Amino acid sequence: MMRLDTSEPGFEAGFATLLDMARETTAQVDDAVAAIIAEVRARGDEALLALTSRFDGWAPLQTAALRVTAAEIEAATAGIPAGLLAALDLAAARIERFHAAQRPADLELPDPAGLTLGMRWTPLDAVGLYVPGGKAAYPSSVLMNALPARVAGVARIAMVVPSPGGQLNPLVLAAAQRAGVTEIYRVGGAQAVAALAHGTASIAPVDRIVGPGNAYVAAAKRQVFGRVGIDSIAGPSEVVVVADASNDPRLVAVDLLAQAEHDESAQAILITDDAGFAAAVAAAVEAELATLPRGAIAGESWRRHGATILVRDWAEAQALTNRLAPEHLQVMLPDPRGWFAGIRHAGAAFLGRWCPEALGDYVAGPNHVLPTGRTARFASGLSVFDFLKRTTWVEASEAGLAAIGPAAVALAEAEGLQAHGRSVALRLPAAP
Amino acid sequence: MMRLDTSEPGFEAGFATLLDMARETTAQVDDAVAAIIAEVRARGDEALLALTSRFDGWAPLQTAALRVTAAEIEAATAGIPAGLLAALDLAAARIERFHAAQRPADLELPDPAGLTLGMRWTPLDAVGLYVPGGKAAYPSSVLMNALPARVAGVARIAMVVPSPGGQLNPLVLAAAQRAGVTEIYRVGGAQAVAALAHGTASIAPVDRIVGPGNAYVAAAKRQVFGRVGIDSIAGPSEVVVVADASNDPRLVAVDLLAQAEHDESAQAILITDDAGFAAAVAAAVEAELATLPRGAIAGESWRRHGATILVRDWAEAQALTNRLAPEHLQVMLPDPRGWFAGIRHAGAAFLGRWCPEALGDYVAGPNHVLPTGRTARFASGLSVFDFLKRTTWVEASEAGLAAIGPAAVALAEAEGLQAHGRSVALRLPAAP
User: Fold this and answer.
1) Architecture of domain A2-24+235-364 in CATH?
2) Any binding-site annotation on B130?
3) Among residues A328, A345, A357, A368, which one is catalytic?
4) Nearest CA of chain B to the CA of A127: how many Å?
5) A106 is in an annotated binding site
6) DSSP B343-384
7) What residues in A contact B287, CB-CB < 8 Å?
8) How far is B61 from chain A (nearest CA, A)?
9) How many CB contacts within 8 angstroms connect chain A with chain B?
10) Average pLDDT, integer, range A181-204
């Protein structure tokens, strides 16, 4: 864990180390992934069956076994406790409501020259959702990835999920059901991404693939990008907690550890103006670590990537937060909104003492798929916008063309594009 | 040129060929580009000077020579004819006005459970604009790439442009001046992209790089992606013109050729319901080709990639257009808006007989940087949205947390993330 203090001479060098900290080493699997994609393109479903037998520890005998049936979903979800289903329903309803509010309006702009300009939003036809199997099979992630697509109006939402030993997580199936997933396939890895991008006899191709995955899945998404859209490749998670000394050090410690428990590459940073408070939080982190089931992981993250930063005032904290551009930002100050007004770069913010970041992971409403590793400088969280695209349009009358056409002809000729110029000039009143 | 007819048995096979036509072979320059990026990261400005001497045919003696001064811009633009400057001004004003209308509003959403949810748009701090040198140095492209950034509120817009022999295109400088470019550097290729992404002593790093370039520039953008944002890598341009027999075949022919003259990989497709009209347009294409300065290029594009598609009715034309998802769509039908209402996938549409696509390349207002190669299925043209990002936020009161917190705890525990659950549970009224 790094202890920084803006009033000390070594601060800039230490902070630069924090900014440049590479928290992840990506495995080089490009060649293996290219071979898998080529195999799925060449042999379709047959390749999916063979690759699933090889990697997932069960042998589907025919293509139909890959598709999860409605009856299987019913059976799997029947055993889920009612309280847990109610929590899933509350989460789904709140996430759907927030994303519905994101839906943008079309544009129609009358124009002084007599043209009409417009912009129209339309949903993608089909989206693929990758869901990891095993330990990271998170139902909350299914809701966060699928619901924005449903709200956008996407007709087909095809989910792929590896099923180690043929088994699926019932809560993941329940989440898919609630989030409007239209098809579920028991297939994972690069082969699932290849099937979604190129299509097979049993899995129709989609237009965009979203959702987290391991190095193979990430490499496959990069390789099919261009043929289909992809979401950004998520890095390790991070949080910046900005808190003054009036907070309970234990609460702040647990908030930091909620980030650190994701994996050893996660990063949790406290910014405060009180050295004693920073020390109290650090002590509370150690105490909590001892009692957490995932304490080994969280402790490793905290020791390797954690930091406390002591600032002289809250304006300094704003400047440092903007340089960190954190994925998650928790603001535990007396006037959280006022302070947050000075923040230009953050994926998602959680304002006030009663707003731990974990609330946003599950039930608050905004998306939990967020830009990591300082990319909040230029990127945004998943949203309805990721499942819509824009078509701009222009409608011109004879008079409208006459008003602005000559300028187009002049510029086309200056650029040496005579057919461009001619297509306008031939329609002008004075044309030969 | 391919002649297709939906009423003939071979249609589906022919149309599939058209859909899958790879119109571009990308040069493999990844290793060379990786070496250039490493050199710029290691030696900064010194590497920029050396690489510029090697690739651009002039030898800047010191770093200061890379930056284009205000006096140089004044001197270079002084000789531009007033009519051309007026055309540039008209284009800039119309592009700016349309993009200003795109600016989205922030969101603040009160919530039945007593929380407040929000979403805030903020501009990127700094953007890099790559402008190709030589034949493709298009002033219109400078306006289309820089103005959306200025409208979004980006403070720094740094343009890089190679200067073969030290020379720059005056009209490109004039466009940069009008579009709010804040810095111009005489540097190009992968080395310019590396400088924008990683920064040197004389060029500060940016957050996103946009603009077209050759294979080296495209590969460099791919390699720095993640550290900075990039725009999509543009493929060859294409147009679909939908026209009935009441149109002038010559006008349609010139519209098709305006696309074909871009380069040999461009694609122009006519969809019509009248075989005689299709033949008349094809004949007019040949006649126009003979008189066009870029006739050799346009002819090559038309022969290799051009097509006429004969349809039985206009609904069929809609379905085929949606499958083509064209970058540009020109609709020359009696009720262009009505027909366009059925189009789900297109980059930009031009409605009516008085609206040649070239109008949109220069002066209409919407952006001319558009998704190519069927990517309009999931991608959009350049816009203000490319220079903004979103921060979502949640504000919770003690009562709000109490209302939805238990559901978060239940889901966190189901996912095995106990610190997540604890960070909420400790704040609930019944907590120990």
Assistant:
1) 3-Layer(aba) Sandwich (3.40)
2) yes
3) A328
4) 10
5) no
6) ----SEEEESTT--HHHHHHTSSS-S----TTGGGT-----G
7) none
8) 31
9) 367
10) 96
- Tokens matching residue A377: 């400088």
- The two tokens of residue B276 are 């005689």
Is domain A30-230 classified as CATH 3.90.1300.10? no
Amino acid at A245: A
Radius of gyration of chain B measured on its C-alpha atoms: 26
Identify the residue among B302, B362, B380, B384 best suited for mutation to test binding to A, counting A beta carbons within 10 A and taking the highest: B362
Give phi and psi for A28, each to the nearest 5: -90, 100
Domains B2-23+235-364 and B30-106+122-230 share a fold: yes
Q: Which residue has the tokens 């298009």?
A: B138
Task: Mark yes or no for CB contact A140/B415 under 8 Å.
Answer: yes
B2-23+235-364: which CATH topology? Rossmann fold (3.40.50)
Q: For chain B, what percentages of helix, strand and coil (3-state, to nearest 5) are there?
A: 50, 15, 35
Show which of residues 378-397 on chain B sit within 8 Å of chain A, judged by CB atoms. 378-381, 383, 385, 389-397
Is the domain covering B30-106+122-230 a CATH 3.40.50.1980 domain? yes
Boundaries of every domain in chain A: 2-24+235-364, 30-230
- C-alpha distances in Å from residue A351, one per residue of A35, A95, B159, B419: 47, 18, 38, 19
Rounded Cα distance, A188 and A195, in Å: 10
Angle at A362 (CA atoms; ends A360, A368), nearest 5 degrees: 55
Among the partner residues A352, A418, A426, nearest to B293 by beta-carbon distance: A418
SS3 state of residue A133: coil
Find, among B398, B391, B400, B393, the residue nearest to B115 by Cα.
B400
ipTM above 0.90, yes or no: yes
Alpha carbon distance A153, A388 (integer Å): 8
- How does pLDDT run across B278-314, given as a tens digit for each residue? 999 999 999 999 999 999 999 999 999 999 999 999 9
Closest Cα in chain A, distance from residue B292 (Å): 7
- Mean of all residue pLDDT scores within chain A: 94
Q: How many angstroms separate the CA atoms of A133 and A168, rounded?
A: 8
d(CA A305, CA A300): 8
pLDDT score of A45: 95
What whole-number percentage of chain A has pLDDT above 70? 98
